[in-house]
């Protein structure tokens, strides 16, 4: 029989994709399904971006590009980072990759090995824990609590650091909780890291354009004292409704930029050229489509949070960023998985069990509100009837 590498059995997955497949199978069988499970904008990619991708194909951009991405795109990323976060970044430090995920895979594989420890958000994006386990490193959960708006406590994180700690992963605005970490907590973490110069930091800022109620995004790039060990991940998937194009980037410090390009060359050579030109048009073109999407997300967020808080046994924080609500469902008497299955099977509403995001997600269910207001309201009515 086949003899797989032992590491393969440690690789996890992202259950949102399994729920999507189940919901699609139920829909194919005639069920009326409302999908609040998968985390992707329900909007189409803005037309001028699509056109730029088509034009790039017509213009003959069919070959390999540099492994780190075409220079105009990396320059446009730097201009965007300057505009949004007020920071100077050298295009040589930008590495364009196929989506947000490759950066986390490369960053974790760069530091993870048996004996190493990596601190990661829990509940958090499930790929962090999966890849840490795959690498052989020890996954050390950073606990994110509802009473803190699902932000980390810098004191708690700093107390988890020991000589084996190699990397800390943070994510704000966060999946699955919608939590946003306040600047004061980040200040404290950065200050505390001065005593631990061997610890690298990966800041997943893929939702940096999606904050509500006047909140401002805090980019870790704004802290010069950690720039030499910071990997800042962002991309096009969420901001420009481009999940299927597969385009993302990270800003890497000088000491890692060669290594990550070597990983890119070993893995995928480069992102397909036409997609890079589409991404260039996204950054250099008008941003009204982005503002529009965020404004619509905000209306839906307020509605879903209000309707969740109205359900018996359910309470929900205000979900300060991203496009997820993460209600506490312990008052329903259901476990997270029971609630997820009941919502899908008894009333055709797809959500994702909090436990899909780590053990500390028990007691919660994630709803993505990247769906129409009508569908969100109908979904909440159906759940109310079932509860
Ligand atoms: N980081 C977080 C926190 C996410 O929620 C996601 C997608 O859901 C990603 C990264 C990955 O995005 P991409 O589709 O660009 O790989």
Offer a quick outline of the entry.
The protein contains 12 helices and 12 strands. The protein folds into 2 domains: 6-44 and 288-386, Aspartate Aminotransferase, domain 1, CATH 3.90.1150.10; 63-284, Aspartate Aminotransferase, domain 2.
Rounded mean pLDDT score: 97
Hetero groups in this structure are: pyridoxal-5'-phosphate
Query: Based on DSSP secondary structure assignment, what is the total number of beta strands?
Result: 12
Low-pLDDT windows of residues:
none
Rounded to an integer, what's the Rg over CA atoms?
21 Å
| CATH topology call of the largest domain | Aspartate Aminotransferase, domain 2
- By DSSP (H or I, 4+ residues per run), the number of helices equals 12
H and E string: HEHHEHEHEHEHEEEHHHEHEEEH
In angstroms, what separates the terminal alpha carbons? 48 Å
Strand order of the largest sheet: 2-8-7-6-5-3-4
Residues in helix, %: 25-40%
Estimated share of beta-strand residues: 5-15%
CATH class category name of the largest domain: Alpha Beta
Shape: globular
